[in-house]
Specification:
- This protein is α/β, with parallel strands linked by helices.
- Helices cover 44% and strands 23% of the residues.
- The chain contains six helices and eight strands, in the order E-H-E-H-E-E-H-E-H-E-E-H-E-H.
Length: 174
């Protein structure tokens, strides 16, 4: 049984939901999982961890700066332990090339080249946005050719079976 740390950064909460789901999958397989929002948990990897899965969301074409700072500070530990990155973005739903470019930029910015990377679709949470953000996100979705522009509802693009498979595949490497 291993102890797996799952630090994440989130802006609108979808990356947090994915991190919690990964934690549940890990625990269902008999391991310990500690899921933590980096903003609240701090920028250190706790002692005694056997593996680390870092989660980050993309907004305005880049991952959160505080997640990049976390990775830079803990790069040596991330390179020593089994570790992985899961990146959450709207681009991961239908624009894999763009989503992959976000990860390449993250790797360049942090110097960390994780052995395992997953790209997960995020969510358009229109009902949670303020008026201006709702209009901006509707325009962006429409400009990208999406039909998901009904702002009276939310759209979740996360493929939960893929998230589960990622977690289980990672566990198989331990």
């Amino acid at each position: 049984m291993g102890s797996i740390y799952i630090p994440y950064g989130t802006t609108e909460g979808q990356t947090a939901r994915i991190a919690e789901f990964i934690g549940d999958v890990i625990q269902a397989h008999g391991h310990q999982a500690r899921v933590a929002d980096i903003k609240q948990a701090g920028d250190s990897i706790p002692p005694g961890c056997d593996a680390v899965l870092v989660g980050a969301s993309v907004h305005m074409g880049t991952h959160e700066e505080y997640v990049q700072d976390f990775v830079r500070k803990n790069r040596e530990t991330l390179e020593r332990l089994p570790s992985a990155l899961f990146s959450v973005s709207l681009a991961a739903h239908g624009d894999a090339e763009n989503a992959e470019s976000y990860v390449r930029e993250f790797e360049e910015q942090t110097g960390w080249r994780p052995a395992h990377v997953a790209l997960f679709g995020g969510a358009l949470l229109y009902t949670h946005y303020g008026f201006i953000k709702r209009l901006i996100m509707k325009k962006i979705a429409g400009d990208k050719g999406s039909l998901d522009t009904d702002t009276s509802r939310d759209y979740v693009y996360t493929e939960w079976d893929g998230v589960k498979r990622f977690a289980e595949d990672f566990l198989a490497t331990l």
